[in-house]
Design brief:
Rossmann fold; elongated; 11-stranded mixed sheet; about 20% strand; 3 domains; single chain; about 550 residues; about 30% helix; alpha/beta
Amino acid sequence: MSNDKPIGRVVATERNPTTTVGVRFWLESDVQLKPFDLVRLSPPEHEGEVGEFYAIINEIEQVSDVPSPLSSFISADFGDAAITPRMARITTTYADATVLFNTRDIEMPVPHESEVHWPDEAGVRKALGMEDYNRNTPAGYITMSGPGQKPMTIHVDMDADYLMGPEGGHLNISGISGLATKTSYAMFLLTAIQQMQETQWNEGNRASFVILNVKGTDLLHLHEEAPDLDKKTKEDWTKCGLIAGPLENVTYFYPYSDTGARVQTKLGTSAVEQNIRDKRAYRYYYDVAGALERLRLLVEDIDDPNQTLVSCADFAADRIDAHSPWSTFREQIRKWAAETPDKQIPVVSWRRFARLIGQRTRNPFFTEESRQGGAIRQVTLKEILNHLQPGQVVVVDIAQLPDYLQSFVVGDVIDIVRRAKVGDLPFDEDGREAEPPDLGTVILFADELNKFAPKRGQARSITRHLREISERGRSEGIILFGAEQFRTGVDDQVTGNSSTQVFGRTTAVEAAKDPEIRGLPGSQTQRVPFLRKGELLVSHTRFSAGTLKLRFPRNGYNTG
């Protein structure tokens, strides 16, 4: 037993007994705790060798012997708030906590009169189950109350086996926009994985990364160190066992354009050209062959109850020569709109299809390879497979594209990666089956997940792809890190299969609607709308506490 001074004692009453999972204790008057703090509970010596318990605070309350508000009102001279009440009242503060761990693996209620103590870092990490991980992955740190009101900082790890396979997989992050929390936390985790697999983990089951940039330029500077990387930020990274800095081995893919900088991106022209010169970036485009493989993605977002537009797309994909130029492709579509080649598809549908395809393939990245293709690094997106060895990062920029083309590219990227992972690759020019590349586990990060896998509306092929990744991606070696403002707007199968759930600040209405948030223990549901910047509630399969409130360092890369 420890001889440090206790800060409170467990109380088991007739109305509120201690249980194998719940405990209540009162606190000394000068002790301050807060929800999510951990404490150590030492049973009285007469209880025998039952070990020590660790518990996490759910809620803290203060109670007095005042029977009703009216009694307090009368004591204050019938409502004079400025005077001191004549009668002193007995008050105490007590906390409700959830029992996490017993040092002797005993599952019995915490005994009455057990002493409450401050824990140490080693005890907290063991109580949270982190000593049994196979591959520790820094997830942030918790700041707890401590002796003398001095806060304790304890770094927290996830288990990579349950974050990116083989035991579990997938991560979902939700929270309102404007706090730079969702994307920042995802990039922190990717940086942690990249650093840990290079320095700490054994060979095998290492990861490569595909990042879809759907907005702004935040993710277009991942290789650049943050210009304001101060001492505190570096110390925060050190707390997590990491080195502050940018991601390494990053390759960018910008949508091709035949005018101006030959690229469609929110990144400045000079930065694009510099990345091209440094052989850090490519311009991706779609020839007819590439577009035919995904043609139905261009019309799946349109209201089409009878699926006639999809039928037109499938008909065209089967009959148009993949080696045709775009002029021939468009001319053939126009002929079919006039002649109606498939009588099972109404002429009005063919005309609608021709109008949509004509409009949606006007983007400059639907083109043939330029004569300067090699010099300007113009490639199809299949080139990403050459940059997905373990430890490498591919960023596909789609921020400047309209929504229907964003979905088109995302569907293409997912299909390319899935085919490579299962060995479904095209034959080479000599008729030999292509050798599957060593991609490692592929972690795919997609923000605004509600755009690609919406909960409502007709399920599109991209939604089905994401469902299959969430259901079977772990066995295929593809892990989805998804983010969105509101989880309730995303397909339930996509979010529900994530073994790690992260909640940033959201609205009270969303917190009330989201069953995952409503299912948080204690009063945690009520705290979600009041989380601050840099604070997250993280639920990871291997946390014995279920959910922890974590902080994480500012990113070490340049956010633009």
